[in-house]
Design a protein that fits this description.
Elements: E1 3-5, E2 12-14, E3 18-19, H1 32-45, E4 49-51, H2 60-68, E5 77-82, E6 84-87, E7 90-94, H3 98-112, E8 117-122, H4 131-143, E9 147-153, H5 157-166, E10 171-175, H6 187-194, E11 197-201, H7 233-252, H8 257-266, E12 272-274, H9 281-288, H10 297-303, H11 306-309, H12 317-320
Parallel strand pairs: 3-4, 4-5, 5-8, 8-9, 9-10, 10-11, 11-12
Antiparallel strand pairs: 1-2, 6-7
Helix pairs in contact: 1-2, 1-9, 3-4, 4-5, 5-6, 7-8
Length: about 325
Amino acid sequence: MQYRDLGTAGLKVSAIGLGCMSMSWAYGSPDEAEGIRTIHRALDLGVNFLDTAEVYGPYTNEELVGRALKGKRDRAIVATKFGFKIENGVTKGPDSHPKRVKEVADESLKRLGIDHIDLFYQHRVDPKIPIEETVGAMSELVEAGKIRYLGLSEAGPDTLRRACREHPISALQSEYSLWERGLEERILPCARELGIGLVAYSPVGRGFLTGQIKSFDDIAEDDYRRCDPRYQGANFAKNLQLVEQVKKVASKYDATPAQVAIAWLLMQGKDIIPIPGTKRVKYLEENSAAFSLVLEQRDLESLEELAQRTSGDRYEAKRMALIER
């Protein structure tokens, strides 16, 4: 495994991380034992950058990661996120009040069973709380030794600039992939200007770009992708055509479509860290091998226009409203 600097404040992580959400939430029935095996295998492969969040479950994913890290904490870079109000297991919207930021940090540390969080993100920008107040509370957690580095997720340029005036921001987490490139015009240049690394979630389009999903019926009844606009009706059919182009490139390299999607991201800049999510050892091994795949220029060009042909929004309107652009 290769390693990359995430931002300019000193954080170094594996070039490919591991999104842990699906091990306990959102993508069909969880298998905790397989999830823990997947985390252990990741560490053995040198994939040390683990991503979770308070809201995943809620709470259960942090607890799973904590169990997996027993006796292995020194091998992992742990990232988790705060920023939602949760009542009786239901997310009620953003909440980044400084007091709540500190409470969540303590609660996450307890669930994870660790004495510090390596990277602590604001999960979504809270329009009711000035970012200066939220980052101020996060910086106090750094001073207290409870967290090491700060991150934001789906924040726009103005928020990034204001946040950096309060404390260095190491990472911006945002969706970025062959079929989602909305941050390239304004946000990615701003992050680079400020010395912020990009953590790219959903690098294989929530599984669509793997080529494994051929019909809507392939999605489990309890899988939240059944509500994903890009998986609906005519959008689904149109997006399958994009997958065929990725498959065509993959066949030239004896690679999988997922590996091509991840390799493409890695080649967009050394400040980009894809975090493909999986709950299976098999797919972890497949994804982590993508760092050795180098795509030829003509293949990069053939993939370039896929995002322009993507059909459907990233999320339903309520979730899109929480994303700054």
